[in-house]
């Protein structure tokens, strides 16, 4: 019969499993969500034998078990690290009802609790909100006269005022007002306006002639540039797709190999835990029989 002062392999395993449950609850929750048989066996073991677990906790510590101490340090370190345990190529259960909704709810909950601790825009220059504003001295010195127009436009937008419509008066040829029909100066302004309009139309005709003569070649050159840009972008896109495909293949191969090993280890772990449970049950029965025999012996004496 084993005494409380003798550490056993079964006790050590119980302590390790209990520490894993305490320090790594995320892994246990993932195992339950994936219908992990091994986790169910472990939970049944803890429910059916709580006394054995409570007796197993102090034994490795009191006996200074080196392996348990090392494992305890590893588990403590794992509890503070971010472990990416998603294996989409071998995990199952994603298509079950409610799984997608539960995952989205977890993401939304984490988004509500997430507080960024890093400034992701620190590599960019400081935003200058007064870049389009100029002082009166700059306006008087004719420094960037268009900036004043932009400032007025920003003020109009801020005041939510409508934009002025395009004035078409410069394209009209109105006669002098009725009261200035005999005014030579008024007629002179009308003649100057008509000459400006005529020159503008001549400029437009010249531009149309130039476009008819050289426009097709200019557009052909522009189309060639666009075609080169398209070819280069498509080649770059294919290269990226090839890299992504190779990465997915390597990831699938790695996860498939890891999945086979995980399934083998899980089967072994379930077998060992089940065997430990059976041994523990047998020990409980033997202890009950021994206690019964001792009571019968005391009664007979």
UniProtKB/TrEMBL annotation:
BP term (GO), one: mRNA processing
GO cellular component: catalytic step 2 spliceosome; precatalytic spliceosome; Prp19 complex
InterPro entries the UniProt entry points to: SPF27 (IPR008409)
Domain of life: Eukaryota
UniProt-annotated location(s): Nucleus
Tagged with keyword Cell inner membrane: no
Keywords: Coiled coil, mRNA processing, mRNA splicing, Nucleus, Signal, Spliceosome
Signal peptide region: 1-31
Keyword Kinase belongs to the record: no
Similarity remark: Belongs to the SPF27 family.
Name under which the protein is recorded: Pre-mRNA-splicing factor SPF27
Gene expressing this chain: bcas2-L
């Amino acid at each position: 019969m084993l005494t409380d002062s003798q550490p056993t392999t079964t006790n050590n395993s119980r302590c390790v499993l209990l520490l894993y449950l305490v320090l790594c609850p995320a892994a246990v929750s993932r195992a339950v969500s994936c219908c992990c048989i091994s986790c169910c066996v472990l939970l049944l073991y803890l429910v059916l034998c709580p006394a054995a677990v409570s007796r197993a906790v102090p034994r490795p510590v009191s006996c200074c078990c080196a392996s348990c101490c090392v494992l305890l340090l590893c588990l403590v370190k794992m509890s503070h690290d971010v472990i990416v345990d998603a294996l989409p190529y071998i995990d199952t259960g994603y298509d079950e009802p409610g799984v997608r909704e539960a995952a989205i709810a977890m993401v939304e909950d984490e988004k509500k609790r997430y507080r960024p601790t890093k400034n992701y825009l620190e590599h960019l220059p400081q935003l200058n909100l007064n870049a389009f504003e100029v002082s009166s001295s700059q306006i008087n010195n004719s420094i960037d006269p268009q900036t004043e127009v932009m400032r007025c436009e920003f003020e109009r937008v801020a005041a939510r005022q409508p934009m002025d419509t395009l004035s078409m008066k410069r394209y009209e040829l109105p006669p002098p007002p009725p009261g200035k029909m005999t005014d030579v100066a008024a007629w002179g302004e009308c003649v100057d306006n008509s000459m400006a309009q005529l020159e503008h139309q001549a400029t437009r005709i010249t531009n149309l002639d130039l476009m008819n003569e050289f426009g097709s070649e200019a557009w052909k050159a522009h189309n060639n540039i666009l075609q080169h840009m398209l070819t280069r972008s498509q080649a770059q896109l294919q290269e990226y797709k090839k890299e992504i495909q190779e990465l997915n293949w390597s990831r699938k191969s790695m996860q498939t190999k890891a999945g086979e090993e995980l399934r083998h280890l899980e089967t072994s772990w379930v077998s060992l835990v089940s065997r430990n449970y059976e041994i523990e049950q047998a020990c409980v029965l033997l202890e009950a029989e021994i206690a019964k025999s001792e009571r019968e012996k005391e009664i007979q004496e």
